[in-house]
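Researcher: Predict the fold of Eukaryotic translation initiation factor 5A.
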Amino acid sequence: MADQDNEEFSFDQAQSGSSESFPMQCSALRKNGFVLIKDRPCKIVEMSTSKTGKHGHAKVNMVGIDIFTGKKYEDICPSTHNMMVPNVARKEYSLMDITDDGFVSLLDPEKNDTRDDIKLPVGDLGNDIKAKFDADESLIVTVLKSMGEEAIIQFKVENDSKK
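Model: Structure tokens for Eukaryotic translation initiation factor 5A follow.
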């Protein structure tokens, strides 16, 4: 009878992608992986572990670069404690148009669907994309999504078999 009472409580109802981040033990984090530092999704570029001191745990020193702004963050965490790791999704789109207000029109080749809600990046990356697009080159842009933010992080010229 106790088993029947517990059937209504199920912990496996959450779907994948339902959370923006998940906990991971600090010692399990790796260089080039992702971590949240000061609530920002960062790529780990440096990691070092100090030896256990007389007061307890080994400490992990890490330096991360914000994947959207490029800003550098540093954090120190005991190796046995958990840090939050962001869910990061990477997707490629065909660039169809660049509007006057700085937004891009993208085509999802898998769903054959368009979207117009991402801004052209500022700086060199945005200038390079605009220059190639204005030169009538077909471009594939890579969009990174994490923590409710999306941004174009890189591009490549599409291989056109007709040329």
